[in-house]
Predict the structure.
Amino acid sequence: MGYLSEKAAYLKGLTEGLEIDKSSKEGKLLAALVEAFDEMAIEVDDMVIIQEDMQEQLDEVDEALADLEDDYYALDEDLEEDYDEEFDELDDLDDLDEEWDEEYSFECPKCGDVVYINPELIDDDVKYIVCPNCEEKILLEFDTDNE
């Protein structure tokens, strides 16, 4: 029983102890006020119980979220380590160029930029490449002597 419920019970007992005439105008008013206060006290007690239940559920959700965050960041760190290990050998473009046996170069007709491409990326279906500088399509034409 909460504090307000105790006060409401005290007021109800006090009203009965004073033997107030409930048929008089003042008696009816006082009895109605005491009854209203009693009902409000019950409602407040119910809201406190609901709030405590909600707080418990919120704490459980908070704990579950913390566990998920821990799992996510642990996974993220593992992925970052795997990424670092896999690409440590390719720190700069010179390392990447060394891995290609051969490369083709094409001059962009629009901006004049030279575009290099790994021949392994070209198959019979590829008819053009896109210039990374100006996004112009460059038709792939090979010199048959070098092919």
Remarks:
- Residues 3-88 form one domain.
- The helical segments are 3-17, 25-87, 93-99.
- The chain has a mean pLDDT of 80.
